[in-house]
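Action item from last week, closing it out:
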Amino acid sequence: MMNALKLTAFFALMASWALSCSSPENGDAAKTHIPDHPVNGKWLVEQHMDEHIREGRRLLSSFVKHGDTAVHMFASTMEKHNDKLIASCSMKGVAHDTLHAWLQPHIALTSALKQASSPDEAMDALQQLEASFVNYTERFAPFEE
């Protein structure tokens, strides 16, 4: 029963995210001319969105560096940070879809951290989040006009 509730909440978040990205209030990605193909081997992401992602990585690095143990509180902070990223989404097209493909599992890792019931589970989720950020920097770069 609990897993069904978690899945329902996860899919509701994904649906709201998909709708917010296509919202006209988030701007017109066509104005930025982001290519629908990788440039120099990386997909381009609007700079303001890239900044949100890089700030998330800085938050994670600081949390780990200081040996903090309040993982559930940190996971809530990361969720709020992810919400800001989602709200700022104004991309469209293949680059947008490629970013979504990276972000969906990343959001699930944040949820796993929040639900961690042991230090080992929390450490595993933290390591996977760091790997997700590494994957982002290998695959994406900020679009600069």
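Closing note: Residues 93-114 form the longest helix (22 residues).
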